[in-house]
């Protein structure tokens, strides 16, 4: 029976929780106003974040969400090293993907969590 990945998503501005597991920041830029101590990061995986060009194109515009999802998925497909690094962490237990965006429904962590769940289920 395949192992179901345990992937959570949380804004980095929320307090760390005891059940977060491995806390992974998936933004390319460090979030404003968050100290390294307060972040309680296991890993800052900048390489898995959307490229600067894609981030600037998207600009957190919900009207561009579908295009962002497609383009970011293509970037993830072309970035097997970073995906593998996150997959290795996810196989050890719960991971919490942290993001800085205000929009909790339209951000890279949402796309990445779905991508990783499918990636891990496919390779189980």
Explained architecture:
The chain is of the alpha/beta class and 124 residues long. The protein has one domain. 40% of the residues lie in helices and 13% in strands. The chain has five helices and four strands. The mean pLDDT is 94. Keywords: Methyltransferase, Transferase.
Explain the layout of strands and helices.
Blueprint: E1 7-11, E2 22-25, H1 36-39, E3 43-44, H2 52-58, H3 65-77, H4 80-90, E4 95-99, H5 108-122
Parallel strand pairs: 1-4, 2-3, 2-4
Helix pairs in contact: 3-5
State the gist of this model.
Keywords: Methyltransferase, Transferase. This protein has 124 residues and is an alpha/beta fold.
Count of folded domains: 1
The average pLDDT value, as a whole number, equals 94
Taking the alpha carbons of the first and last residues, their distance comes to 8 Å
Content-based structural category: alpha/beta
Output the number of helix runs.
5
Q: Please provide the ordered H/E string of secondary-structure elements.
A: EEHEHHHEH
Largest sheet: 4 strands, parallel
Cα shape: globular
Percent helix, as a range, is: 40-55%
Strand order of the largest sheet: 1-4-2-3
- The total of beta strands comes to 4
Cα-based radius of gyration, to the nearest Å: 14 Å
């Amino acid at each position: 029976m395949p192992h179901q990945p345990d992937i959570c998503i949380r804004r980095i501005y929320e307090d760390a929780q005891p059940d977060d597991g491995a806390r992974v920041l998936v933004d390319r830029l460090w979030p404003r106003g968050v100290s390294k101590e307060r972040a309680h990061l296991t890993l800052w995986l900048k390489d898995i974040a959307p490229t600067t060009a894609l981030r600037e194109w998207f600009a957190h515009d919900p009207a561009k969400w579908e295009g962002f999802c497609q383009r970011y998925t293509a970037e993830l497909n072309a970035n097997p090293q970073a995906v593998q690094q996150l997959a290795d962490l996810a196989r050890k237990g719960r991971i919490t993907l942290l993001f800085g965006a205000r929009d909790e429904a339209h951000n890279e962590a949402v796309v990445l969590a779905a991508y990783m769940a499918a990636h891990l289920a496919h390779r189980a």
